[in-house]
Specification:
5-stranded antiparallel sheet; 3 domains; 470 residues; Dna Ligase, domain 1; 15 helices; alpha+beta
Length: 470
């Protein structure tokens, strides 16, 4: 058995949009996270707000957002689920369990590298390690050892030089061990277990047994949620499109990584923006073709928000979407056709994002015998033809005049760039007494230039042009 641990080393900071000025996350009155700019001033987690502000007057603070951290960890677990269905969610990371030989990429080192690359693409600050036991993998990841140990490696011997400071021991236990001259893991392993139990309790023995693989490690495995949801807060309210787009691009990177891990694609998603005045703006996106290209998704969001002028600055942004399995199906016979279809679908999505959901429309057939009422515009995507089709639709032109154009009549013959010859007809269109009165006789007519038209004669013996044939 192999376990891979992933520890997010800057989890409190990950819940906020990055800043290029000194920034820290606080819990109570103590710093729990500092960005790179703040660390340049010597600030570290554990400092009080008063000391930190004295050391760096330009430092800005934000209270810790536990809910956003939990949502981030859920996304991390969903990403890990793409590598193994046995994922354990912990307070600041995840554990993944693999068999010794079965993994998506075969070699354990390649597997660790693949996971690390995905985490780096999402922009996480992390440490990872692999070992034959969950306790050892977690300990090595927290110690930033970045090791990849398999059962064939002398991993138990490699653990012995590890300082006790790396073990999750109570401060009193650690101090007592140091007073007894026990400074490394190997020193504890050489001590009689019965004596350790009497002095320190059963917890120390359980920790050593977990490290050495002397007891079974039964974990509560995480179950994937049907939706991706990620909220990102701004340490200072965002007032520009650039700041909002930067935050959304980071969320989309995480979302795309989760979709790739779950073999999912986005057919629809929603973006919510919380404003400083308490208002909430929500935008829903429905795609013509399932997508998981991050650049395409970011471009659609930017198109929709490009001309948006929020009434007040934005304090938080949330993206949520269902995680549905890919329904790509088999590829078409001709690759060019595939790319043309993708290009058209992408164009429609961009037009709808830029101009609005109802700006792109499709024509559909209605069950009405009057030509001007036999079609209508519906929101995209089209739901297919409704009403009569086939032979009747084939006899009628697509290009219709609205309203019909009155024709000149000479000697009882309608004129349109010459006298018209009636090639086919009549087709009577007549309404009942309960509807708008219409009595028309339709003909397919041809002029001397062999152009075909669709004309009708009214009950008053007047002639009109209704449409053109191609």
């Amino acid at each position: 058995m192999l376990w891979q641990a992933v520890v997010l080393t800057a989890l409190p900071l990950e819940a906020f949009a990055p800043r290029e000025t000194p920034f820290a996350v606080v819990e109570g009155k103590t710093l729990v996270g500092c960005n790179a700019c703040a660390r340049e001033y010597g600030l570290t987690p554990g400092l009080s707000m008063v000391r930190a502000a004295a050391s760096c007057p330009s430092l800005s603070f934000a209270p810790r957002d536990r809910a956003a951290e939990e949502a981030l960890l859920e996304g991390l677990a969903a990403f890990a689920y793409g590598f193994t269905p046995q994922v354990v969610l912990r307070a600041d990371g995840v554990l993944m369990r693999f068999t010794d030989k079965a993994s998506p990429v075969g070699d354990p080192r390649r597997l660790v590298a693949s996971v690390a690359q995905g985490l780096a693409d999402m922009g996480y600050a992390f440490e990872t390690a692999m070992a034959p036991t969950a306790t050892t993998a977690w300990l090595c990841a927290r110690a930033a050892m970045r090791c990849v140990w398999t059962p064939q490696d002398p991993w138990r011997a490699l653990l012995r030089p590890l300082p006790l400071a790396q073990l999750p021991l109570a401060d009193a236990v650690r101090a007592a061990c140091l007073a007894l001259g026990l400074a490394r893991v190997g020193d504890l392993l050489d001590m009689p277990r019965s004596g350790l139990v009497r002095r320190f309790g059963r917890e120390v023995i359980s920790l050593l047994e977990g490290l050495m693989g002397e007891r079974s490690e039964v974990e509560n495995f995480w179950a994937p949620a049907p939706r991706f949801r990620r909220r990102l807060c701004f340490s200072h309210p965002a007032e520009t499109e650039e700041a909002l787009s930067f935050a959304l691009a980071r969320i989309v990177r995480e979302w795309v990584a989760v979709m790739r891990a779950r073999d999912a694609r986005a057919g629809e998603f929603a973006v919510e923006m919380r404003h400083e005045d308490g208002g909430l703006r929500s935008e829903t996106f429905t795609l013509t073709r399932p997508e998981r290209d991050g650049q395409v998704l970011v471009r659609l969001i930017r198109e929709r928000l490009r001309d948006a002028r929020p009434a007040s600055p934005i304090t938080a942004v949330t993206l949520s979407a269902p995680l549905e399995a890919s329904t790509e199906g088999s590829l078409p016979l001709w690759r060019d056709g595939q790319w043309h279809e993708q290009g058209f679908g992408g164009l429609v999505d961009r037009l709808r994002a830029r101009l609005g959901r109802d700006a792109v429309r499709a024509l559909s057939v209605r069950p009405d015998h009057r030509p001007e009422r036999a079609s209508r515009e519906d929101p995209w995507p089209p739901q297919g033809l409704r009403g009569p089709a086939g032979a009747v639709a084939a006899e009628r032109p697509i290009w219709l005049m609205d309203p019909p154009e009155r024709l000149e009549v000479v000697g009882g013959v309608p004129i349109l760039r010459g006298p018209l010859r009636l090639a086919r007809g009549p087709e009577r269109v007549e309404t009942g007494w309960w509807d708008e009165p219409v009595v028309r006789d339709y003909f397919v007519a041809v002029n001397p230039a062999c152009e075909s038209f669709w004309v009708f004669r009214s009950a008053q013996e007047e002639w009109f042009l209704q449409g053109y044939f191609a």
